[in-house]
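This is your field. Have a critical look at both lines of this record:
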Amino acid sequence: LMGLVEASRLNGGPAGEVTDPLYPGAAFDPLGLADDPDTFAELKIKEIKNGRLAMFSMFGYYVQALVTREGPFQNWKDHVSNPMINNAGKYMASAYCDFDPLAPASICS
């Protein structure tokens, strides 16, 4: 579905001719942030960095769910109930043993 929308946009869809195919920001700018080209270039970089940060934080959620086998809200509730016990240290050895079949028996027992 998203591929069809992007193909329509690149082929001169309802927004008109595309000047930069990697960034469709010129079509919707009600605050006039793209009037100055230098500011617009800086805002594009900031938006890309913000997207990368968001993707990295979602990766953290996925890793946390794989290691603890619980969701982020349950992990937060456990941590708030007893922060000295329910933290990352609780899962370090067990996560290593779960995902590495050649883990030494001395730390996995």
